[in-house]
Amino acid sequence: MTHHEMWLPESSTDHLRGRTLRVDGEGVLLDTVRREAARAAMLPATTDADVTIDLDESLGPETFRLVRRDGVTNVVAGDERGALYGWFELVRLGARALGDDVPGQVNRPAHAMRMLDHWDNIDVHPVMGQVERGYSGGSIFYDAGEVRADLSRVGAYARLLASVGINRVAVNNVNVHAREARLLTDDLHEVVRIAEQFRPWGIRVHLSVSFAAPILLGGLPTSDPLDAEVAQWWADAVARVYEAIPDFGGLLVKADSEGQPGPFSYGRDHADGANLLARALAPHGGIVHWRAFVYNHTQDWRDRSTDRARAAFDHFTPLDGRFDENVVVQVKHGPMDFQVREPVSPLLAAMPGTRLALELQVTQEYSGQQQHAVHLGRPWSEVLGFRPSGDDGPTVSELAGGGLAAVSNVGDDFFWTGHPLAQSNLYAFGRLSWDPQLAPSAVLDEWIALTFGDDPELARTVHGILDDSWETYESYTAPLGVGFMVNPGQHYGPSVDGYEYSPWGTYHFADRDGVGVDRSVATGTGFAGQYPEPWRSRYEDPATTPDELVLFFHHLPYGHRLHSGKTVVQHIYDSHFDGVERVERMVASWEQARGRVPDDLFERVSERLAEQLRSATEWRDQVNTYFLRKSGIPDERGRRIF
Amino acid sequence: MTHHEMWLPESSTDHLRGRTLRVDGEGVLLDTVRREAARAAMLPATTDADVTIDLDESLGPETFRLVRRDGVTNVVAGDERGALYGWFELVRLGARALGDDVPGQVNRPAHAMRMLDHWDNIDVHPVMGQVERGYSGGSIFYDAGEVRADLSRVGAYARLLASVGINRVAVNNVNVHAREARLLTDDLHEVVRIAEQFRPWGIRVHLSVSFAAPILLGGLPTSDPLDAEVAQWWADAVARVYEAIPDFGGLLVKADSEGQPGPFSYGRDHADGANLLARALAPHGGIVHWRAFVYNHTQDWRDRSTDRARAAFDHFTPLDGRFDENVVVQVKHGPMDFQVREPVSPLLAAMPGTRLALELQVTQEYSGQQQHAVHLGRPWSEVLGFRPSGDDGPTVSELAGGGLAAVSNVGDDFFWTGHPLAQSNLYAFGRLSWDPQLAPSAVLDEWIALTFGDDPELARTVHGILDDSWETYESYTAPLGVGFMVNPGQHYGPSVDGYEYSPWGTYHFADRDGVGVDRSVATGTGFAGQYPEPWRSRYEDPATTPDELVLFFHHLPYGHRLHSGKTVVQHIYDSHFDGVERVERMVASWEQARGRVPDDLFERVSERLAEQLRSATEWRDQVNTYFLRKSGIPDERGRRIF
Question: What is the pLDDT of residues A324-380, one digit of tens each?
Fold first, then answer.
């Protein structure tokens, strides 16, 4: 075995072994279902099958419904993809799939686009390595400067993604270096090979491209989006892609951001830029994903008027309505950058005339880098269900007409994700993209049951470790939403002042009296004013800002009393001591898993938990010491702070 | 021209052109003198020469004396090296060399060993690059994983070094990686080529070696210094080196330090380790330089009892008297690591039975990395003249029986040193190694006159920029000797808390009340007790500790009044505002040099001064803001702090 099977071990189809199946219809994806059935040791049948799968176009794309009648479970699917997803529902349901309590409702994805972005480089980047923000070894796509000759692991990955409903994958880093840029042209035949691995699983391949490609690859003197030759170059390049890959998904662009080229160089705006590519893609049904992650990363820390949190909104809202139909503006869930706690990005509620995608991060850049067990289903669920305009308004999920996109966390590590328990995040992202209303705790249990089989004690252990692990991580890192107290560059481990005097726009302004960023309209940067009511008013006032975000919106004295009844500084002390104790319990609890999971998995998780405990202790001591030294206020409970 | 000529431009020998010279005797170095004379367009003569050079062994090695009689300048030299150094004295003296006021005293180096260490890697290191702590481009020795085919620049370098009296060079980094380790064995023929470049200039080549070489290169199971096979391996390896390079200088070792292997792995001590190599070298007259830079770099910041400043003394003083005669223990000038201001290392006064070398750093790792103009002659002079046992005791220079060693600052940059004005540091190191009593300001003027020729206004400008540039740099960086407020790893630019929670043992302990490290015996780490009297008592008490070191030895409240009459915090504010103003004056002053120096040199210095001003401003603002936020004490003069 060259890799772990994640949530599709052989045992996951035990309930189907020896049963009979009839699949009506022809097609690539139906063939995939037949191969999956054979793999599960089901027997083909023409009549009297235990399970039947057939198509009914009236259900609509990607949709299926399970019907149990006369001892037969019938999967009725709107199209081939629906059949494939229905098949995996049978796997997920276990024995229930063949029982009379099969859930019978129509099962339709909430989002048509459910996408994973890979920040994989072909050449190893001197600083960022093979996979930018990758914590799971090398790339499954690339090695030693080339696309891998053996892409079979990509096929295994595609199967896993399809089983949780992912239908699009961007296969290279949004920071497009010279080597990766060539995927669009000279190395297109290599992308063809990658697409062949994804195609049987209903997954379309996307490419990240450089906005400067007409110069870099085409030898043109400009990349000006309003230049006719530039437009023609893109049209020709895209046409060649579709000739080679008819089901190609589209292009992903990070422009005018953190050093990447973009339309600003030509005095154009992001609508000009995005529409340039959109028009090249439109004849072929392709999509351009255009990232809204645009901000000034050479900010002066002395200038308190500039606020990075404002940037995406300020850049993009004036462009609302100007983007072509096949442009999706991809918006990070928070206004900063995947911090453990951020408010929902107000941009998501501010572009009614634009298709927006919600961008999440499965890779744990700021949440422990797959050294720490941090299950992200809960924060994602909170974001998806958040209603920026209050209880009567739409949820973020509903606002994200362009679907969901997330940065993947897999690599060529045996367990795919470095930390075996981080597989749960990949699983949860797929499932929540399909149905954002799923309870994250239930999704976690699905993953546990598939991965670890029927062992209630083990399930309790793993659930106990992961279910509130996000809150645990939050409790020992940056407090109350203030974010960015990490080591610069690598983003692992504490450095309270690490970004305090940096050009990246990431500050907490702690002094001897207080800490936090005043983002109110009245006295601060005005960021709170980017929200519609009721949140605009709620965030404006510390009294109505939720505790967990209060330092994101306000600079408060250490003695300020939170809704919890604690002062700010006592909250910092308490949560940090508590966080380490929670990790100690995780470590102790994992001992229950010994002998119940494969030894290699047990050891890997044990090692990482030991590192998590070491790291959490370091976080606790540095953060508490920092605030004790600054505030001079002792811990009410007299615990040891250095 | 592939490189700048530093302090030996053609014009430096104008006063000798057309004059006649007679050199008596034969030998490689005398041939060098003859070639230099021809290069200066002197004419050979047998009688009636303007200048004569001859040997008189009674003067002793490396020594010379100028005698002016009957219109002839006679260089009487104790040996060939003395003749070469005498020649360069003629160059340095300018017209005075041929006048009746030739200085007539015997000119003998204060130190027999005057050495430069190169931290050059052969392979480019992923983090440290080609030259570790190199700020002047690539290595002049190595390129693309090999010793350069064309080593002519090494020959030019050797000439420059000989002109200031350097007589030994270690040609590879003390952090010996796998590739560099092979210089000792497989690649010895390449070292032969390097030695050929140095030999005509009286310079002996040394190699840095890995203590694990018997394992790495010899395939032995151990590097235990008491193992007979290990000793034999070293003896054989060294014998092969001397067969190839009869004037080989010896070996340089960084052992049990920052991850390098050493005798501790075998339960042996540093005397065992050093003597192992010493015995291999002794039959050939070779020297082992053994670095005393040994400390715990995985320290816990929570543990205030461990003090990195104590480490070298604690490790080495128990070994005094146990080192073989041909071991030189190489001691950094301060107890930490080349900070801009440190007290003199007490180890220098604590090993009367051991040959010690004083280690300095010409490369500006912690002093602006050759982006900032920082002339180091003055601090070196202070160290060399410091008397650890008080006014009646010996100077550091006198205690350094093993001579001086310093990390070089050159690379393949056109100007050799990145910042053209940093050439002055290489010059000053050589001159002060020869004669530590030279006034640093006079050495600076020598360098200016040689480099820039006879232009009094330009000389004033350059002198004005460099003479107190060290104090300027100190004034805008870490205050009052506390050190280490730099960005971790790269060590450029401010990061006040950058090392505050690190394992490297580099802390300032700033809190809302005060800052500094208590190293007293009474209440601190006891480091002050490592000094003999009177310094032990002086450093013990803030009242008798010099201001510039007071935070190195004491943790003091911000309101503590210094000898200067200022409070600690007001000193911080004042010195940082003042430092930037001084840099502004440097920038303005350099404008005087326009048109008086070559354009490329003018531009290079201008660029660097602009960067120095930017960086100094950043230092000022970050340090001042940090201490204002922490102390809450406003600037008495109401200047802007952020």
Answer: 999 999 999 999 999 999 999 999 999 999 999 999 999 999 999 999 999 999 999
Tell me the shortest Cα–Cα distance from A127 to chain B, in angstroms: 9
Rounded Cα–Cα distance for residues B215 and B224 (Å) = 10
Q: How do the domains of chain A map onto residue ranges?
A: 10-107, 114-436, 474-517+555-631
Cβ pair B202, B167 in contact under 8 A: yes
Nearest CA in chain B to A619: B501
Q: What is the DSSP string of A138-152?
A: S-SSEETTEE-S--H
Q: What tens digit of pLDDT does each residue of B240-286 get? A: 999 999 999 999 999 999 889 999 999 999 999 999 999 999 999 99
Residue A560 backbone class (left: φ over 0; alpha: ψ -120 to 50; beta: rest)? beta
Report residue B304's pLDDT band, with 50, 70 and 90 as the boundaries: confident
Catalytic residues of B, by residue number, are 258, 337, 365
Q: From the candidates A79, A269, A342, A365, which is the catalytic residue?
A: A365
Least confident of A476-480, B58-62, B123-127, B214-218: B123-127
Contact B407, B117 (CB under 8 A): yes
What is the architecture, at CATH level 2, of domain B114-436? Alpha-Beta Barrel (3.20)
CA distance A391 to A387: 6
Q: Is A512 on the interface with B (CB under 8 A)?
A: yes
The catalytic position among A337, A412, A413, A471 is A337
pLDDT tens for residues A388-402?
999 999 999 999 999
> What pLDDT, on a 0 to 100 scale, did the predictor assign at position A614?
97
Of A497, A511, A628, Cβ closest to residue B497:
A497
Query: What are the distances in angstroms from CA A222 to CA A210, A218, A226?
Result: 13, 10, 10
Predicted confidence (pLDDT) at residue A128 exceeds the cutoff of 90: no
Report how many Cβ contacts below 8 Å link chain A to chain B: 50
When the candidates are 3.30.300.30, 3.30.450.40, 3.40.640.10, 3.30.379.10, the CATH number that belongs to B10-107 is 3.30.379.10
Catalytic residue among A24, A258, A398, A454: A258
CATH of domain A474-517+555-631: 3.90.1330.10
Q: CA–CA separation, B525 vs B521, rounded Å?
A: 6
Residue of A306, A614, A622, A629 to mutate, interface with B, max B Cβ within 10 Å: A629
B10-107 and B114-436 share one fold: no
In the predicted structure, residue B107 carries a pLDDT above the cut 90: yes
